[in-house]
Amino acid sequence: MDQRYATSPDNVPGMDTAELRRRYLVQDLFAPGEVRAVYTHHDRVVLAGISPVGTPLELGTFPEIRSEHFFDHREAGIVNVGGTGTVTVDGVEHVLTKGSCLYVGRGAQVVSFAATDADGDDGAASFYLISAPAHTAYPTTLVEAGQGTQRELGDALTSNRRTLNQYIHEQGVRSCQVVMGVTRLHPGSMWNTMPAHTHDRRTECYLYFDLPADARVIHLMGEPTESRHLVVGDREAVISPSWSVHSGVGSASYAFVWAMAGENQSFDDMDGFAISDLR
């Protein structure tokens, strides 16, 4: 488990490109046959990539979280960004097609991941997990791709027409802190969020996927009056602290998993900034 310590917006002006990437960009999260994880001290979020090949992979604990089982004091949202696979939680198997989401509540003990369709167009299953501390237990719940609350946002005229699927949220699957969903851009649209916004009570993490190998997303971050950018590839994640804007534009079609943890689960709890106010 890699650790990323919390940062202040005052740190950003002095960071060069390499340090920005080291602190906020998560690369190489998915490796065949491995579980890889990053712990960010922003809201104590854990990001993990689980890529089973052949034999199932079990999500064990990590010394950094000081618990016998990973879910002793945590909950998680899991989205499959690859081919069909399964997540088995304490003996109960859940089938996740691409884009489906599974919420796992506090108290789960044995959680394993398996790929069932490694030869399909989407390759082997690749599971993206976001976890946060939990104060109580909610039931493990599966939401199949496209079955959550759908919101149609943006406009083709401003190149940000997109379908947002809310899975774990205050009006959907219940959780303590985690809010999670998947957004896919419509053909011809490239901006994922514009105008940009912050939400000062929640850390948000983006995982970009279905991006061609030779394409990139330019992800905006930093305070609105002191913005920076990260150049992001397929299946790479960005840690966006509560004080940072998060918006991006791609050189090709893409989708992304968005997930948040913090004090407020209201999706519309945000502070918008007009593009003319960004610096």
Automatic annotation (TrEMBL):
<dbReference type="InterPro" id="IPR014710">
    <property type="entry name" value="RmlC-like_jellyroll"/>
</dbReference>
<dbReference type="InterPro" id="IPR011051">
    <property type="entry name" value="RmlC_Cupin_sf"/>
</dbReference>
<feature type="binding site">
    <location>
        <position position="204"/>
    </location>
    <ligand>
        <name>Zn(2+)</name>
    </ligand>
</feature>
<dbReference type="GO" id="GO:0045490">
    <property type="term" value="P:pectin catabolic process"/>
</dbReference>
<keyword id="KW-0413">Isomerase</keyword>
<feature type="binding site">
    <location>
        <position position="197"/>
    </location>
    <ligand>
        <name>Zn(2+)</name>
    </ligand>
</feature>
<dbReference type="InterPro" id="IPR007045">
    <property type="entry name" value="KduI"/>
</dbReference>
<comment type="pathway">
    <text>Glycan metabolism; pectin degradation; 2-dehydro-3-deoxy-D-gluconate from pectin: step 4/5.</text>
</comment>
<keyword id="KW-0862">Zinc</keyword>
<comment type="function">
    <text>Catalyzes the isomerization of 5-dehydro-4-deoxy-D-glucuronate to 3-deoxy-D-glycero-2,5-hexodiulosonate.</text>
</comment>
<dbReference type="GO" id="GO:0008270">
    <property type="term" value="F:zinc ion binding"/>
</dbReference>
<feature type="binding site">
    <location>
        <position position="246"/>
    </location>
    <ligand>
        <name>Zn(2+)</name>
    </ligand>
</feature>
<dbReference type="Pfam" id="PF04962">
    <property type="entry name" value="KduI"/>
</dbReference>
<dbReference type="InterPro" id="IPR027449">
    <property type="entry name" value="KduI_N"/>
</dbReference>
<dbReference type="InterPro" id="IPR021120">
    <property type="entry name" value="KduI/IolB_isomerase"/>
</dbReference>
<dbReference type="GO" id="GO:0008697">
    <property type="term" value="F:4-deoxy-L-threo-5-hexosulose-uronate ketol-isomerase activity"/>
</dbReference>
<keyword id="KW-0479">Metal-binding</keyword>
<protein>
    <recommendedName>
        <fullName>4-deoxy-L-threo-5-hexosulose-uronate ketol-isomerase</fullName>
        <ecNumber>5.3.1.17</ecNumber>
    </recommendedName>
</protein>
<comment type="similarity">
    <text>Belongs to the KduI family.</text>
</comment>
<feature type="binding site">
    <location>
        <position position="199"/>
    </location>
    <ligand>
        <name>Zn(2+)</name>
    </ligand>
</feature>
<dbReference type="GO" id="GO:0042840">
    <property type="term" value="P:D-glucuronate catabolic process"/>
</dbReference>
<dbReference type="GO" id="GO:0019698">
    <property type="term" value="P:D-galacturonate catabolic process"/>
</dbReference>
